[in-house]
Amino acid sequence: MSPTVIARRLSMLAATLSTAMAASMAASPVQAEDLRAPEAFSSIGDTAERSRALFVEAGKVLQHPRCLNCHPVGERPSQGNDGHPHSPPVVRGPDDHGAIGLQCATCHQAANFEPSRVPGHPLWHVAPKSMAWQTRSLGEICEQIKDPRRNGGKSLAAIQEHMAHDSLVGWGWHPGGNRDPAPGTQAQLGALVAAWIDTGAACPAR
Amino acid sequence: MSLSLTVNGARRDFDGDPDTPLLWVIRDELGLTGTKYGCGIAQCGACTVHVDGRTLRSCSAPVSAVAGRQITTIEGLGSRAAKAVQKAWVELDVVQCGYCQSGQIMSATALLEQKPKPSDTDIDHAMAGNICRCATYHRIRAAIHAASAQLAG
């Protein structure tokens, strides 16, 4: 490797480290929040009340920044643990995979890329507008999730499968960089959603 | 680890860490320095290349992700849309300092190849990730429209 190349790489490294240190100071990762298992709610005698409590627990995941950031109400997703506007200012585009010429895959690759701390997944995209969660109450999100006209035509069983096994949902627990993971585990979320459905899929007040 | 790349239509081999950012391979190993290093974190667009005709920030992609795919850098642009963009860029004297311009041209060309008659909004959305420290944005937009007109003519 030539001295010029070495000097350039050292310069790049210094710039990258400087940016990384600033980002680290701005938002340090924290310990993942716990998620209670369905059994923790068995003392609630009223079935509908227990169902609502189960959904509120699952809501810790649904309303976590790892999920909310890509369920925008408008055209633009947000990012970070504080849900600030996405930078660069991208839009959902015609198919929720970004604008023509600036698609999600322009920056987001098949896996998290730690040298630049850009998150990634093969299916990276924003949720359709009908599935917007930002600014919505948990009760509104619950009704939305159950509504086949807004949930992509899914049955409750398909919703549970999506929450429990979809790999893009699963990214929320392996976000890389200094992003906080979603609470608990994907399996725990799946168990909570299954228990919520089994108890009648009742929704919290809007 | 040895990887086989196709860069500007030619086969190029890379023997190194598969997680090396594509930008470093393009610039340091292949000597194609038209693609620029700006931020290193996919925030500025200076490192934009095409992979299978779509834009990609080469600073944020591991070289292993593009093995076997068609990589085009600013040095290899040759499509009809690319020639229209280059002509419009010269005619409108778009460039000021020039550092970001190879990335701007890569994004503009990708846009026109996918949407030959873009609106102002299409242009703003496609170019939103390419920062210009000289703020040549109005000339860039005008040049994309001029290139589009050339393609239609």
Give the arrangement of secondary structure elements.
The complex is a heterodimer of chains A (206) and B (153).
Chain A: H1 3-26, H2 47-62, H3 65-68, E1 78-79, E2 84-85, E3 98-99, E4 102-103, H4 104-107, H5 138-146, H6 156-165, H7 167-170, H8 186-198
Helix pairs in contact in A: 2-8, 6-8
Chain B: E1 2-7, E2 10-15, H1 22-29, E3 48-51, E4 54-57, E5 70-72, H2 80-91, H3 101-114, H4 120-127, H5 137-152
Parallel strand pairs in B: 1-5
Antiparallel strand pairs in B: 1-2, 3-4, 3-5
Helix pairs in contact in B: 2-3, 2-5, 3-4
Overview of this protein structure:
The complex is a heterodimer of chains A (206) and B (153). Chain A is built from eight helices and four strands, in the order H-H-H-E-E-E-E-H-H-H-H-H. By secondary structure, chain A is mainly alpha-helical. Chain A has a two-stranded antiparallel ribbon. In chain A, a hairpin with a 4-residue loop joins strand 1 and strand 2. In chain A, helix 6 (156-165) packs antiparallel against helix 8 (186-198). The longest helix of chain A is centred in the first third of the chain and has 24 residues, at 3-26. Chain A starts with a helix and ends in an 8-residue tail after the last helix. Chain B has 153 residues and is α+β, with helices and mostly antiparallel strands. Chain B has helices spanning 22-29, 80-91, 101-114, 120-127, 137-152, and strands at residues 2-7, 10-15, 48-51, 54-57, 70-72. A five-stranded mixed β-sheet of chain B has the order 2-1-5-3-4, with helices on both faces. In chain B, a hairpin with a 2-residue loop joins strand 1 (2-7) and strand 2.
List keywords for this structure.
A: mainly alpha; two-stranded antiparallel ribbon; 4% strand; globular; B: 153 residues; alpha+beta; 38% helix
Largest sheet, spatial ordering of strands of chain B: 2-1-5-3-4
- Average the pLDDT over all residues of chain B and give the rounded result: 97
Gross morphology of chain A is globular
Structural class of chain B: alpha+beta
Following the backbone from N to C, one meets helices and strands of chain B in this order, namely: EEHEEEHHHH
Biggest sheet of chain B: strands, sense, closure? 5 strands, mixed
Outline the low-pLDDT stretches of chain B. none
Task: Please report the total strand number of chain B as a whole number.
Answer: 5
Q: Which assembly state applies to the chains in this document?
A: heterodimer
Beta-strand fraction estimate of chain A:
under 5%
Distance between the termini of chain B: 48 Å
Taking Cα atoms only, what radius of gyration of chain B do you get, to the nearest Å? 15 Å
How does the overall form of chain B come out from the CA principal axes? globular
Count all strands of chain A and give the number.
Answer: 4
The N- and C-terminal alpha carbons of chain A lie at a distance of 63 Å
Compute the number of helices of chain A: 8
Specify which chain pair forms the largest interface: A-B, 29 and 35 residues
Give the strand content of chain B.
15-25%
Q: Please state how the strands of the largest beta sheet of chain A are arranged side by side.
A: 1-2
Which structural category do the helix and sheet elements of chain A fall into?
mainly alpha
